[in-house]
């Protein structure tokens, strides 16, 4: 497929590169139970997970031109993932061994904790992803590298991999997630390298504060701006408070509407889908933030999650802009 045949007014395709696994989400509990006891929970959902797969699935539901670039293990969990991602732009290989699984336990009120196995994810490195993307139409496309800190095989070559994506003409988005060892000096150094190569940096509020060492999101954006490309956009996902972005020396805030939230697992991934889908259509910063918030709100209001087309009840814009 050659991207030069894409109509000029069509949204650009999005390659979502990173982790795919299975999630078992269950709950809710007010407090963690005592070891050796049994607790009966009122809900559970067994579904596709992993930050990249979550984002790609929501982009599918939004009708975007998208392909997931990932892999699974050679088991029933892997087969479930490959059935969902079998489109012309999907590149999901089957590798020997078990598929990574995450168990998410919901706390009453919306928080959650995870127990995860690495499974097949340990073997996904830059050589694998580069090979999978060899025939992908990256020129003019958006390439989101999602969950970089959850892919130990990619970690050391992550910077060089982003450079190769840029050399092939892609617009680069990153959502590295939270480093397993916390924000060590090594993790901060790597993340700054990735930030310097990205056009869209997608972080949540805890991640941007940890990476910058600052106490407020506004100050964190100022602290990270020297590491960013001049035309890059730093997006900060702020949960129930909405989202913010720093771009062209402006700090823009969009607020979220109150929701009755059951399951916040994958909320940031759903935001990424809405935001990047709007960017692919040429939307403004404000409109892209608004789309991300609306999509995330629609997804986290579902239980169990769906793979059906997603229709949005769009909320009214609510924003504030201040200049650095």
From TrEMBL:
Entry keyword set? Kinase, Transferase
What GO molecular function terms would the record report?
Answer: fructokinase activity
Q: What is one GO biological process annotated to this record?
A: fructose metabolic process
Stretches assigned to the Carbohydrate kinase PfkB domain: 42-302
InterPro entries to which the protein is assigned, alphabetical: Carboh/pur_kinase_PfkB_CS, PfkB_Carbo_kinase, PfkB_dom, Ribo/fructo_kinase, Ribokinase-like
Keyword Transferase in the entry? The reply is yes
Instruction: Write down the PANTHER family for this protein, in alphabetical order.
Output: CARBOHYDRATE KINASE PFKB DOMAIN-CONTAINING PROTEIN, HEXOKINASE FAMILY MEMBER
User: So what family is this one in?
Assistant: Belongs to the carbohydrate kinase PfkB family.
- The name this protein carries in UniProt is Carbohydrate kinase family protein
């Amino acid at each position: 497929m050659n991207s030069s045949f894409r109509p000029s007014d069509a949204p650009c395709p999005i390659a979502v590169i990173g982790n795919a696994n299975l999630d078992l989400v269950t709950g809710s509990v007010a407090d963690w139970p005592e070891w050796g006891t049994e607790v009966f929970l009122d809900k559970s959902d067994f579904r596709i997970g992993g930050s990249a797969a979550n984002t790609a699935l929501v982009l599918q539901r939004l009708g975007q031109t998208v392909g997931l670039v990932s892999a699974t293990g050679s088991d029933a969990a892997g087969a479930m993932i490959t059935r969902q991602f079998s489109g012309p732009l999907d590149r999901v290989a089957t590798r020997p061994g078990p598929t990574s699984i995450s168990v998410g336990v919901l706390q009453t009120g919306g928080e959650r904790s995870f127990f995860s196995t690495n499974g097949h994810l340990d073997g996904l490195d830059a050589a694998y992803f580069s090979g999978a993307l060899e025939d992908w139409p990256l020129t003019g496309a958006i390439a989101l590298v999602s969950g970089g800190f959850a892919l130990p095989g990619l970690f050391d070559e992550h910077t060089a991999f982003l450079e190769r994506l840029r050399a092939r003409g892609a617009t680069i988005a990153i959502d590295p997630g939270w480093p397993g060892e916390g924000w060590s000096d090594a993790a901060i150094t790597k993340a700054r390298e990735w930030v310097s190569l990205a056009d869209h940096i997608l972080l949540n509020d805890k991640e941007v504060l940890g990476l910058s060492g600052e106490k407020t999101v506004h100050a964190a954006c100022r602290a990270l701006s020297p590491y960013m490309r001049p035309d890059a956009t730093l997006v900060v996902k702020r949960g129930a408070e909405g989202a913010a972005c720093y771009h062209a020396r402006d700090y823009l805030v969009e607020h979220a509407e109150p929701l009755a939230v059951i399951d916040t697992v994958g909320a940031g991934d759903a935001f990424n889908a809405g935001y990047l889908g709007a960017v692919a259509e040429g939307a403004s910063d404000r409109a892209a933030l608004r789309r991300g918030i609306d999509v995330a709100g629609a997804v986290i209001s579902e239980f169990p999650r769906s793979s059906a087309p997603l229709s949005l009840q769009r909320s009214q814009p609510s924003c504030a802009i201040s200049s650095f």
